[in-house]
Amino acid sequence: MTLTGQQLIGFATSVDPQKSFTGINAATGQTLEPAFYEASAAEIDQAIKLADQAFGRYRQTTPERRATFLDTIGEEILKAGDELIQLCMQETALPEARLTGERMRTVNQLKLFAQLLREGSWVEARIDTALPDRQPPRPDLRRMLVPLGPVGVFGASNFPLAFSVAGGDTASALAAGCPVVFKGHPAHPGTSELVGQAIIRAAKATGMPEGVFSLVQGASIAVGMAIVEHPLIKAIGFTGSYRGGKAIFDAAMRRDEPIPVYAEMGSTNPVFILPGILKEKGAAVAEGLAGSVTLGVGQFCTNPGLFVTLHGPDSDTFIAQTGELLTKSACGSMLTSGIFKAYQEGIKKLAAIPGTQRITQSNGDGQKAYATLLQTSAKNLLVHPELAEEVFGPSSVAVTADSKEELLQLAAQLRGHLTATVHGTEADLKEYASLLDILTQKVGRILINGYPTGVEVSHAMQHGGPFPATTDSRSTSVGSAAIGRFARPVCYQNFPNDLLPDALKTENPLKIWRLVNGEWTK
Amino acid sequence: MTLTGQQLIGFATSVDPQKSFTGINAATGQTLEPAFYEASAAEIDQAIKLADQAFGRYRQTTPERRATFLDTIGEEILKAGDELIQLCMQETALPEARLTGERMRTVNQLKLFAQLLREGSWVEARIDTALPDRQPPRPDLRRMLVPLGPVGVFGASNFPLAFSVAGGDTASALAAGCPVVFKGHPAHPGTSELVGQAIIRAAKATGMPEGVFSLVQGASIAVGMAIVEHPLIKAIGFTGSYRGGKAIFDAAMRRDEPIPVYAEMGSTNPVFILPGILKEKGAAVAEGLAGSVTLGVGQFCTNPGLFVTLHGPDSDTFIAQTGELLTKSACGSMLTSGIFKAYQEGIKKLAAIPGTQRITQSNGDGQKAYATLLQTSAKNLLVHPELAEEVFGPSSVAVTADSKEELLQLAAQLRGHLTATVHGTEADLKEYASLLDILTQKVGRILINGYPTGVEVSHAMQHGGPFPATTDSRSTSVGSAAIGRFARPVCYQNFPNDLLPDALKTENPLKIWRLVNGEWTK
Q1: Of A306, B38, B337, B410, which alpha carbon lies 20 to 30 A from A479's?
Q2: Interior CA angle at B305 toward B349 and B485, to 5°?
């Protein structure tokens, strides 16, 4: 497969030579070939118009045909083979084992949505049959989810496969029946093009309409904004920084027609280690925590960037142990030089906040990031809440509270996060029941005696959380429930049976679960 | 029961005498006693802080206790008896039969949500059990909906009971576990207070925490904005004008923490009458349509403000018949003098658009609104899309298209509406299948051979639609699915069974439907 450096618009490539950028070898800083052209406003407009045209046919495809499309995308990604992995390793400095694992996760995500389509119940069909003799008579009412329309999706830098071109948002949007216009992340343009080519091959092979998927690339903010502001785009999926996500959200709300924005903007994922377990298993928790902080050079949105203990000899030991483990941990290249710089500056900023001590000594040399541990008191965090803001990378802040009350007060002051974790013995958890209740209000996922990194792709996963973790806490970006992002309900009143969508026909030809007159039935 | 004219804050009344306003007898224009005080900023802050405090206990109440609370609200509203109906008649000029019917609907809405709580499956429980032997191991994951937090709800003028103090948004928010701070509509302050008192009595009788409900009143925009902008408010429900709803939406999006806004802002609910049925049953459809246009003096958000036919002798007859029926229809007092004035001005504005003819002659005398019919061509509507904008009241615009293509083009140009309706014979519907497909993209509810007024409160209802009909097409303000507005999912990872909420415990003590490892089961 050949990299063109061009936009993939519908089934064609397109180039406007005015502006270009290059991929960078993340480990060496060297420029990669070829150069990539930035999508022009006209090209983006063309991609979105094609998506809108494709929507008419695509929303009418059967679930089985869309499932085959998704499965075929997975097969085509696998066919891109070692070339894809090797290029992705160069662009991201992520190791081979991680990327082959991430590729399998990406393929499995596509398969999960294909299964969901074949099973069919995701449309949430509800039927209230007519009551002609009631006064007033009740008409026949049937409700199901329908796709929103063309969706704009932004790739994340830290998951170049699973949260990028054929990642979760693309898979769930395509599953729901929405064409996708994808804005590739400039940190892995070659990976993006190879995966984009795989999607286009799959679309052609399975007879999908041209425009069901387009890939536009660019390093400028203007490329993304042209998607967000286009009147034919009906929703946005984004994973990245608070700054980027909030700018996209604000632009989308300012549109003549505001649209849903699902921006996952990361968080610090606080971990509370309660006194009993600190005494009983402190060393084991320190090991698990240090592993979670440094996994993937800390480049996960579920990275535990804050942990809280009650001050005392056990917590002193625990913090020292965690600091030692972090100091000894392997350092690594980050995804881009920009991210590395932001990590170093972020740590510098946190360390400069009064009342903050550095436990580890350095956070990187000229090339590689080192893990960092800072320490502060709960009192100081309450005065300087910016200590709870995310620094993307392998760092964490150890916070010590002087009392249970102070610990609970700190929890109550937290803003929205993707996850929160509590480590405790049975007795701890009983004594701190109110902590669990408080944290449930702050997050999308709450863990006991685990580590927040590692996000299972399944039915019960919730990857989201209250603002500022995301712009829409009602939604998940991981797991099968994500399909709900790109759909809305429509009620069909008094329709002849043969004009109804299959999901709502009286004989239930799709054999799906439906709420019929208030009872779930198949 | 005595009207105090004061705010109902928690379990107490409160008065800040700086500003007051009065209810108006909608039929006579006379001032009603007593005067009502406007809530001050301090009172609103107090109500919201009480709601936030109440949230801690209220979210932990069992579904059965919340169901009893809702049922008791209904009983207390019925106990308010004829006094409530008579006062409401004065404040709104709505007739007694309509208001006793609306009261029953309001009570039934509360009962519907009580049933939903007792049945319990609304929390959408999903369980993926642990796979400890898989590589990597899968943790135990359990996901359900939890309440968002204190909700601000705005009453609508046109449903002083069913979309006001104890209306759908209040019922669904309280059902979900969210305290409510209600902004009473200034067009029926006495009705609001009587219903507010009923809710407070029910809260006390069923042992709900103080602050679970408060009612603040006011005629100034500042009162509502103080709710929308308060950091402890986590969602907004609103039914009313585009101008009001959009201002609230914009303010909520500008907050440090943007929050969901469910604003239902009305629409013109286009009706398409196809050629076959126009010939076969034109007179009957004209009668049904005129009845729908004038129902409740046209003061419904589902009022059919636009209908479309193919130009020809049948459509000439149809429009003339509809015009005659509208001319002969009973005229009536509107809800407020402001609404009446806006109706008269709205008609004047539409009639002044070039290419528009008046079919009916007058739209009201000094006191009462008359039904209005205007006529224009599809070509003219495409040039002047403002002809498709809502004029609240008993009016409609007859649009004639010169061809099927023009009719489809007009449909494709429509913005979002709550409903769309198609009248057709079997042959019509077959020939115009693409019309149904286009309209499905534009609305929340699509009807065949019916009339859009009359919104059933049931499981399969969808009362919503794409912007500008609402600010969130993913949601409904009527029917049991409305409970989803005020909830978000949380995933519990690796929780001991006894620390899980009942809905997620392994033994399924609530006997609810749950998605366990991908299979729905009870």
Answers
A1: A306
A2: 115
Model confidence band, residue B392 (pLDDT cutoffs 50, 70, 90):
very high
* pLDDT per position as a tens digit, B222-233: 999 999 999 999
Report, as ranges of residue numbers, the positions in chain A whose pLDDT lies below 50: none
Distance CA A115, CA A63 (A): 10
> For testing the chain B interface, which of A113, A253, A458 should be mutated: the one with the most B CBs within 10 Å?
A458
* Helix ranges restricted to H, A93-220: 96-119, 168-176, 189-205
For residue B445, the Cα-to-chain-centroid distance in whole angstroms is 14
Q: Contact at 8 Å (CB) between B386 and B416? A: no
Instruction: Read off the tokens for A171.
Output: 């898979």
pTM above 0.90, yes or no: yes
Q: Do A50 and A203 meet the contact criterion of CB atoms below 8 Å apart?
A: no
pLDDT tens, residue by residue, B290-315 = 999 999 999 999 999 999 999 999 99
> Could you read off the pLDDT of B467-493 as tens digits, one per residue?
999 999 999 999 999 999 999 999 999
Tell me how far CA of residue A482 lies from CA of A68, A172, B107, B429, B502, in angstroms: 19, 6, 35, 35, 25
Q: How many other CB atoms are found less than 10 A from the CB of residue A405?
A: 10
DSSP state of A364: B
Q: Which domains does chain A have, with CATH numbers?
A: 36-265+471-485 (3.40.605.10), 271-448 (3.40.309.10), 494-521 (no CATH)
Active site residues of B: 264, 301
DSSP E strand boundaries for A52-140: 126-128
Phi, psi for A490 (deg, rounded to 5):
-130, 135
| ipTM score of complex | 0.97
How far apart are the CA of B187 and the nearest CA of chain A, in angstroms?
28
Residue B266's pLDDT is: 83
B488 vs A127, A454, A474: nearest CB: A474
